[in-house]
Write a structure and sequence with these properties.
The complex is a heterotrimer of chains A (about 375), B (about 90) and C (about 180).
Chain A: E1 2-6, H1 7-17, E2 22-25, H2 32-43, E3 50-53, H3 57-69, E4 74-78, H4 80-85, H5 87-95, E5 101-106, H6 120-123, E6 131-134, H7 138-153, E7 161-166, E8 174-178, H8 182-188, H9 215-244, E9 252-255, E10 262-266, H10 270-283, E11 288-293, E12 295-297, H11 301-307, E13 313-318, H12 328-336, E14 343-348, H13 358-369, E15 375-376
Parallel strand pairs in A: 2-3, 2-4, 4-5, 5-7, 6-7, 10-11, 10-13, 13-14, 14-15
Antiparallel strand pairs in A: 1-8, 6-12, 9-11
Chain B: E1 25-29, H1 39-43, E2 49-51, E3 57-59, H2 69-73, E4 79-83
Antiparallel strand pairs in B: 1-4, 2-3
Chain C: E1 2-9, H1 14-27, E2 31-37, E3 46-54, E4 69-72, E5 92-96, E6 110-114, H2 116-123, H3 130-141, H4 146-156, H5 159-179
Parallel strand pairs in C: 1-4, 4-5, 5-6
Antiparallel strand pairs in C: 1-3, 2-3
The chains are: A alpha/beta (about 375), B alpha+beta (about 90), C alpha/beta (about 180).
């Protein structure tokens, strides 16, 4: 059923339908509306879960870690500085192979303080062992939670997952969302079956000390699980399509790509604006297209390579920067296309809530065609 | 042994590890100087000192590593570390 | 696609107005999108909120620079912010003011002024003008119907508060219909 609702509330409703058994989260702008709604549902008995109030994000994810190790389906949500405070626990959750699902309402990282959107926060946890999904709109933001739990809890994977959606731009936007029913979600998402769990009657130790003889093998196994997730995501996407008629079969989405010479690559809500700009440029005879990265971890290397085979130039829009290097996405794309002869240019764009318009996208297309790239787009030189 | 998921394993028991063989010096307890304060039991890192029913204390030499903390801390000087004849 | 930009100050309900207008438009059978652009998170700071209306799914995420409609909740903003910026020819601006505007208004737009604060104080007893201006918006643009607007207000507020907000919207609506 289509309803018009705020992005945060669409996410909270989706989380409710996933039947989490434990939620621990600490409110922070622009994630607040999600956990506020879930706390309300827990208090009103609409959702059968333990809602643990905590004094920090570090505690929130630590509580989630413990609850997940005990065998529960667990949820949290955060953003920006909150995620930064969880840094240590994030690596532990992944290393312990606990399928916690966490929403990231993407926001810039301080200093300087900014409450506005970019994707620096989740990108900075790139190497932590969490799956990373990026939503273009609020429909997808809701749907990716169902997908994330199913993939994370699959015994071939057993890794935690971020569902990222742009702070304010999606979290605070009212738009129509097709709301799933509990019966549909129950069909798609079976209860969590932990392969092992903490149980005082049958004790195990988890996350023990790994000496140099063992540590590398643990990292290898976690990496292998991340790579196995690629096929599991596609499988889950197909199962989702069968029930809901919405297609998440790939880790990427192609838009008007078939004969495209200039191809954009981007993640998240900016892709809607890029699609509108592409339609305009197509009307004017420009051969442009978009490859949207929906899943950044695992990185869909083969999919990207295959999709960009015939491109002349690729313009990668990064709403993040690895300071002293480049945007995180352009580095991956260059790696995927190494030796192919396809030109890959990077654009740092839309940091800290800087608005990105269709006109900006058209200008980037022009820059890419003229071979100008690897730059910050739209800098206000007058204040430098 | 294959790796446990998330570096997990069945717990072992410290009692299986008979650390008494590591010892070079052993603690000789002189009960005539013992004030029954229990400091030796509290501070023993192996937890191998126990009260003997009279209020005084005895080390379990199966596990005592001979670290000497009990002798160092005993306020009455009732514990002496002595070279062990093996 | 038609676009609305609302200018207000933190605490005046601009974001709620955008949301309720989008809800009413959606109920009327079109795709709608509403979102805020906060400045600093503080009462009294200038706030913008936006609504898009379209017969197709809305993908565009940028802010609104060339609006078909503008609502100004507080005429004191006009000195600080160019509230009429980018308005298309024939676009409609609805401005809450007690007095005629002394500032330059683009000649090619339709300007509607009303004392929404007066109506809100009289009906609600509070200087919160969003529902009043929504009534004016419904009458001036036809983007939302009165009944959809009233449903949206009833879904957001309860009891007496809903009734009063509907009354405020109705007053503004009939006032603007009289003018238009």
């Amino acid at each position: 059923m289509m309803e018009i609702t705020e992005g945060s509330h669409a996410v909270a409703h989706a989380v409710k339908l996933c039947r989490p058994q434990v939620i621990a989260a600490y409110p922070i702008t622009p994630q607040t509306h999600i956990v506020e709604a879930l706390a309300g549902m827990a208090a009103d008995g609409e959702i059968d879960c333990e809602y643990i109030t905590v004094e920090s994000e570090f505690s929130a994810l630590s509580a989630c870690l413990g609850a997940s190790a005990a065998g529960s389906r667990v949820y949290s949500a955060t953003t920006s500085q909150g995620l930064a405070l969880m840094f240590e626990v994030c690596f532990n959750v992944a290393g312990l192979r606990l399928p916690v699902v966490m929403t990231i309402a993407n926001r810039a990282l301080g200093a300087p303080l900014s409450i506005w959107n970019d994707q620096q926060d989740s990108i900075s946890l790139r190497d932590s062992g969490w799956l990373q999904f990026y939503a273009e709109d609020n429909q997808e933001a809701a749907d990716l939670h169902y997908l994330a739990y199913r993939v994370a809890e699959d015994h071939r994977v057993l890794l935690p997952a971020f569902v990222c959606f742009d702070g304010f731009v999606l979290s605070h936007t009212y738009e129509p969302v097709n709301v799933a029913s509990q019966e549909e979600i129950d069909r798609f998402l079976p209860p969590f079956q932990p392969p092992q769990r903490l149980d005082s009657k049958d004790p195990i130790s988890m996350g023990m000390y790994a000496t140099p003889e063992y540590y590398m093998e643990f990292r290898y196994e976690t990496d292998a699980a991340m790579h196995r997730a690629n096929a599991v995501i596609q499988e889950a996407g197909m199962a989702f399509d069968e029930i809901f008629g919405r297609n998440y079969c790939g880790l990427t989405e192609s838009y008007r790509l078939d004969d495209a010479e200039t191809v954009f690559i981007a993640m998240g809500s900016i892709c809607g604006t890029v699609k509108d700009a592409i339609d305009q440029m197509r009307d004017e005879g420009e051969k442009v297209g978009l490859l949207r990265i929906r899943c950044f971890r695992p990185f869909p290397l083969e999919e990207v390579r295959a999709a960009l085979r015939n491109a002349a130039v690729v313009a990668v829009l990064d709403r993040n920067i690895s300071l002293g290097s480049r945007g995180a996405v352009v580095l991956e794309v260059r790696d995927a296309l190494y030796g192919s002869g396809v030109k890959v240019l990077g654009y740092i764009i839309g940091l800290g809530g800087r608005d990105v318009t269709k006109a900006d996208i058209r200008k980037v297309a022009q820059l890419a065609k003229s071979g100008e790239g690897d730059l910050f787009y739209g800098l206000r030189r007058e204040v430098l | 042994m294959p790796l446990g998921l998330g570096c997990s394993a069945r717990p072992g028991r410290a009692k299986d590890n008979r650390t008494g063989s590591w010892r070079v010096f052993w603690p000789r307890f002189d009960h005539s100087k013992c004030s029954k304060c229990g400091m030796c039991q509290t501070l023993c890192p192996e937890g191998c000192i126990s009260e003997d029913g009279e209020g005084t204390f005895q080390p379990d030499l199966t596990y005592c590593k001979g670290c000497g903390i009990c002798a160092e801390e005993c306020p009455g000087g009732a514990i002496q570390m002595e070279k062990e004849e093996k | 696609m038609r676009e609305l930009r609302i200018h207000g100050r933190g605490g005046q309900g601009s974001v709620t107005a955008a949301e309720l207008i989008a809800v009413a438009a959606f109920e009327g059978g079109v795709y709608a999108q509403a979102f805020p652009a906060f400045g600093v998170e503080r009462r009294g700071a200038p706030v913008q909120a936006f609504v898009r209306f379209s017969d197709k799914k809305i993908r565009l995420r940028s802010q609104v620079y060339e609006p078909d409609y503008v609502i100004v909740q507080d005429s004191t903003l006009i000195g600080d912010v160019n509230v009429f910026s980018g308005m298309k020819p024939g676009a409609v601006a609805i401005v809450n003011t007690e007095r005629p505007l002394t500032r330059q208004v683009p000649s090619e737009i339709t300007l509607i002024t009303l004392d929404a604060t007066g109506i809100a104080l009289e009906v609600l007893g509070l200087p919160i003008t969003n529902t009043t201006l929504m009534g004016a918006f419904a009458a001036a643009t036809g983007e939302i119907t009165t009944s959809a607007l009233e449903d949206a207000i009833r879904a957001r507020f309860s009891g007496d508060l809903a009734t009063k907000n509907i009354e405020a919207a109705r007053r503004a609506e009939s006032l603007v219909k009289g003018v238009a």
